[in-house]
């Protein structure tokens, strides 16, 4: 004020005006500040201070609410250091907490290196499980993590793609930016800092003013007496759990002397279905499978139920357990499950052990079975042109030719010069050829090479069963031996038995 008075005196003396005493100016300023506090606060501290310190506030009657009607959520950087789970270095993680408004009871929380949708979802699931029912209105922060599409997206043709809040039937209320007074959970964070965080050896404060003495320069006395213990994420979560349990048993002035636990237990729900709750909190992603698999979170997932699919599907998964994911059609029809694939030894036969060889055998067996499945389905779809009805199409009709009588060919004249001796010799040679055993060739031509035993069997099955031709003795013996083997029974025994029955029924119908 003295500096302002001297500046005023210089201006008045320059303009030739009388200069009042400093005491008179001080009395005027005190009177003006008392009568125009809004102007003083606005000019000195800004609009936010004007709204927080001078403007009227709205009283909210929370006694008319029930437990679970409104729950608050916010993220808070802890004021003590915790070892980072990946780097092992001290850092300040984020505490995401949900609190019931009516009872002032913290009901769900999660600690993670940064505020993210994963931490918020985990804390919300814990809150609903502890609440015993689904809350009606979540009053949440306006940060981007709380506004993630996973929570808020509700304009979709598919309910399973809707935001989590919409799926749970909750109406979201976002707090205004930079207005902590709208969130009662901010008061809990201050209480938590005063009653718990300041007592920890790794307390660092949230600004320079609250920095502990051992973190300042030349504080050898405090630095020598400071403990080097820094909690891990798990230990920090246990600290929060113990404090919440103690806080819930303390009388609360805003509850008329009752404890948060007493009010909360009086209005707690009967419980929720944990299976349904888990389904709501599964993450959903749309993928298009290729060659029985897809990539999720940097891992390759495969499933036999994806064989032959070339369309978009939904994958539902939990970050807490990626050992198995659930597959659905876009209309939410279940397809099956998929698991991460495991790479096999490139030269298991030469350098691998028995387990490596077994993995290779299982992989080859799986490929053969899937291929055989397609081959069998393709054969079942095979029909002749007459059976398919294509012969009735205009461009495939054939005009019938009228039968004409063909004259009987005249007997050829015997060649001249054939002596009776030569004729007798040829007749004797013909009789000898008829009497000699002949090497009967089969009525089919087999390839010289087959890629596998199942390919050879498939060819012989087509010739003998479908075409009805007789097999050569060697082929018939090989086919009988292969049908008696374990390999045939494991791979395609049932499929070929069904095909044999189908072809036999068709043959019987044709004969009848």
Automatic annotation (TrEMBL):
What range(s) does the Integrase catalytic domain occupy? 52-268
Biological process (GO) annotations held by this record are: DNA integration
One Gene Ontology molecular-function label: nucleic acid binding
Superkingdom, natural source = Bacteria
Name used for this protein in its record = Integrase family protein
